[in-house]
Amino acid sequence: MALVEVNNLRVQFLAKGQLKTAVRDASFTLNQGETFSLIGASGCGKSTILRVLAGLQREWQGHVKLLDGAIKPGVRFQGDLRRNVQMVFQDPYASLHPNHTIYRTLAEPLKIHGESQIVLRVEEALQQVGLPADALQRYPHQLSGGQRQRVAIARALLLRPKILLLDEPTSALDMSVQAEILNLLNRLKQQFGMTYLLVSHDADVIAHMSDRAAYMADGAIQHEFDRAALVRGEHRMDAA
Hints:
Layout: E1 2-15, E2 18-31, E3 35-39, H1 46-53, E4 61-66, E5 69-71, H2 79-84, E6 85-88, H3 102-112, H4 118-128, H5 145-157, E7 163-167, H6 175-192, E8 195-200, H7 203-209, E9 212-217, E10 220-225, H8 227-232, H9 235-239
Parallel strand pairs: 3-8, 3-9, 6-7, 7-8
Antiparallel strand pairs: 1-2, 1-4, 4-5, 9-10
C-alpha cells in the first residue's frame, strides 16, 4: 500500500528577481514498510521534496497524497498528519533548542498532543536510541554529534509516526558514528514497522538503507532503482 503518492510535483522560488525551479514534475510512490531514497548532488531538489512532504514548504504545484489523503498547497498540517509525518534534519545541533534540556525537547511534542505518562515515554525513547538516562538533564552542547542525532531521532519517534523523513541524517557525523546511526534507523524501522523516505548524496548510505531509490538532477527524477539494481551498484554512477 502506498503511503505517499507524488505526481508531477513542481516547486518554484523567486530568487534575485528570477523564478527558479527547484523541483520539476517529480513523480514517485512510497510504500508502507519500505525505505525509498532520493539520491543526487546538493541542490538537485531532494530536500525540497522532503520539505513539501513535511508541510514546511507550502508553495508547490502538482498532486500529493499522504496517508490516503490529498494535501493542498498553502495549507498547514494539522492533527493526525502532523503526528504521523515526522522529519529528522541534517544538522542535529541546529534542530535542537540550545537553551532547552533534552528532557524538555523530548517532552514538548507529547504535551502538545495531550499524551500521558510523559516521563515514562521520554525515558523509553532515550533507551530506544541507546542514550543513558542522565542525558535528559543535559543541553545539546553537552552531547556529541552522534548523541544529538540520536536525540533528534528519539524526538521524531515519540509520536509513533507512520512516515519518517530523513534529510541527510548522517552527513554531519564521523564515519564510525554514521554506521551506528544507520544501523539504529534500520533496527527501529524493523521494531516499529516504520516507513522511511531518505535523502542522501552518499551511494553507500543508499545501498545500505534502501529498498528502492531514485536519482535526481536539475530538479527532476532521472532514474529509479530497485533493490537488485542497488545491490549491483548501478546507482553509484549517478551518485558519482
